[in-house]
Structures are given as C-alpha cells and as structure tokens.
C-alpha cells in the first residue's frame, strides 16, 4: 500500500481536504499517511483530523506524525508539499512593506515581481534540500508541489534534482466554476481545454455539448454583468480573446497595465485589491483558533470531495487505471 507524505501538514485545512480525497478511494484507504511539520502544535491538530477522517470513512489508514523530515519521507511513494518559508510574519509582511516604501504596490506578491522573487529566494533552497533528501530516501517518489512561486520552484527542482515533480494550484478548476456561474450553466455540463504555465494559463476551448461558450462569456461584458472583483480578467479577454485562469488580483500583478504608481484611477476603475493577501492572511489567522477548537472537539468532520487535482493524480498512478 502507498505511503503518502504531507510536508507542511500543519496547514490543517488544506491537508484535511487532501486526506479526505485520498482516503475516499478504496484502493488508497489503507495507505500510510505520514504527517510532517516543524510546528508541534499544528501537527497535533492535523493528526487528530487525520484520525477523524479515517474513522469517518472507515479507512484502515496508518497515520503517523513526525518533526523529522527525512523520517517522514523515508520510503514515500508520494510527497505533497504545502509549506510557507518565513511564514506570514516576517516573510509575507516584509514582501509587502519594503516595496511599498518605494512606491511599489502589490496584491498577492507570491508569483512574480519583487514579492515573488523574494519568496522564491527564501523557498527554493528549502525545496532543493528537501528534494536531495528524497533522492536518498525515496528516489522514485512523485512530488506534488503546491508552494508558490510555483513556476520558479518547479523550474528550480527540475533543473537541480532528479525528483519527478508536478506543480499544482486551484485556479483552473476554480475559474471554470466562476465562468459557469457568470453564464448560468452548471459546471457539470461544461468541458474545457486549458493550456499555459501554472498561474498563467488560458481556456483555449470552453464548451457545452460542442457549443462554443465564449460568445456567452463575452455577453457578460456586453450586458454590463462583469463581477466587480473580476474586472481585470474580463478586460484582458477583450484584448487577448481568451480567458485567463488566474484571479484578477493575481493577474493585475502579472502585467504592467493595472498597478501604476501615479495612476490611482486604474486601481479604482479595475477594482484592484492592493494588499489583498495581507488581508486574507490576517482573516485566516484570526479564525484559526476557532477552527482548531472545532477540529479537536468531539464534533465529527464533514468530508466532501474537493476540486483539487492531487488525489486525481495519485489514484491512477497507484492503481494503473485512467
């Protein structure tokens, strides 16, 4: 049975979703789930969650936890990485505050620009060290990598190590659902083809039963129904002809057209949420203790399949089925 290692398992909410997806497959229900984190307290919470998930699903999984990374990786068939080097403080805050002093504003600061570069400089050495451990203790592992800056990280791993790596995020499936909502068609009825690199991909086809749905998407613009939070991407659709997968707050950083030091009118016109990631992190931190108490209580955990692709990669690889 497979051994699946979670690196940064203290990201409890994310780990919970992935564990639920994986253990819901009968063929993976007896897997060894190895949880690793450098934060003992968060690791204990994730261990409780893992046991709750296994019990709810009736899965005979073996759950193990450790603060020793090599031990967690030893013999792993799959490793899932969800770390943040430097944390919210000082890492993320510094990435925003220092550039801001010099007039450079950001929304997310984790993929491109100065924020993405600094995050990459912090993160890549840790990932390479991790991969060198894998080369020694689990050389055939498949590494599912969720850490930003995604393209930089995967590029570094592919250039400097022999580890099989897949970079993953949620923008493709998430944006497809957003578009389905905008045009009033159930996502279950939509097929699409998407291509690009992680965080900059485009829907080359967006269809229902062979019908091209792009005219309906453009109709959202014509009828003045563009959601306020999504103005950037709809503006890019006008110029490029295809809809980009990444969120408007992300994509506003990826081009030189929306965030300009002396153009506050553009920020207002396209509703660009400066410092959005700071706000998001603060809200998540504020809600963590309540979430932790719920997870550690006697209350059962509801398990629903997430839209994440991780388990959809692991299951066919483990079973040899499409």
Automatic annotation (TrEMBL):
GO biological process: carbohydrate metabolic process
Entry keywords, A to Z: Carbohydrate metabolism, Cobalt, Glycosidase, Hydrolase, Iron, Manganese, Metal-binding, NAD, Nickel
One term of GO molecular function: metal ion binding
Iron listed as a keyword: yes
UniProt binding sites for substrate: 148
Pfam families hit by this protein: Glyco_hydro_4 (PF02056), Glyco_hydro_4C (PF11975)
Transit peptide as UniProt keyword: no
Site (Increases basicity of active site Tyr): 110
Family matches, as SUPFAM superfamilies: LDH C-terminal domain-like, NAD(P)-binding Rossmann-fold domains
UniProt remark on cofactor binding: Binds 1 NAD(+) per subunit.
Positions that bind Mn(2+): 169, 199
InterPro entries registered for this protein in UniProt: GH4_Enzyme_sf, Glyco_hydro_4, Glyco_hydro_4_C, Lactate_DH/Glyco_Ohase_4_C, NAD(P)-bd_dom_sf
Residues covered by the Glycosyl hydrolase family 4 C-terminal domain: 194-322
Cofactor (UniProt): Mn(2+); NAD(+)
The family this protein is said to belong to: Belongs to the glycosyl hydrolase 4 family.
The protein, known as: Alpha-galactosidase
Organism (species): Kouleothrix aurantiaca
Source species taxonomy: Bacteria, Bacillati, Chloroflexota, Chloroflexia, Chloroflexales
């Amino acid at each position: 049975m497979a051994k699946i290692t979670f690196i940064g398992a203290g990201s409890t909410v994310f780990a919970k979703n992935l564990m639920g997806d994986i253990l819901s497959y009968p063929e993976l229900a007896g897997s060894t789930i190895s949880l690793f984190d450098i934060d003992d307290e968060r690791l204990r919470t994730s261990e409780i969650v893992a046991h709750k998930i296994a019990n709810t699903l009736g899965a005979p999984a073996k759950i193990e936890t450790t603060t020793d990374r090599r031990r967690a990786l030893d013999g792993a068939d799959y490793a899932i990485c969800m770390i943040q080097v430097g944390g919210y403080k000082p890492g993320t805050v510094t990435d925003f505050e220092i550039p801001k002093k010099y007039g450079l504003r950001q929304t997310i600061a984790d993929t491109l620009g100065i924020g993405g570069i600094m995050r990459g400089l912090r993160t890549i050495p840790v990932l390479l060290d991790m991969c060198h451990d894998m080369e020694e203790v689990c050389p055939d592992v498949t590494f599912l990598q969720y850490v930003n800056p995604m393209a930089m990280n995967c590029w570094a791993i592919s250039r400097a190590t022999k580890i099989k790596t897949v970079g993953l995020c949620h923008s493709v499936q998430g944006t497809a659902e957003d578009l389905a909502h905008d045009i009033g068609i159930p996502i279950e009825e939509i097929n699409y083809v998407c291509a690009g690199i992680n965080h900059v991909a485009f829907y080359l086809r967006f269809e229902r039963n062979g019908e091209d749905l792009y005219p309906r998407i453009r109709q959202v613009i014509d009828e003045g129904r563009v959601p306020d939070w999504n103005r950037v991407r709809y503006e890019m659709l006008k110029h490029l002809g295809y809809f980009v997968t990444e969120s408007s707050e992300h994509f506003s950083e990826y081009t030189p057209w929306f965030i300009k030091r002396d153009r506050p009118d553009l920020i207002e016109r396209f509703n660009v949420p400066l410092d959005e990631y700071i706000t998001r992190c603060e809200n998540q931190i504020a809600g963590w203790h309540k979430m932790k108490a719920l997870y550690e209580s006697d209350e059962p955990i509801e398990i629903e399949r997430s839209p994440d692709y991780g388990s959809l990669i692991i299951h066919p690889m483990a079973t040899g089925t499409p």
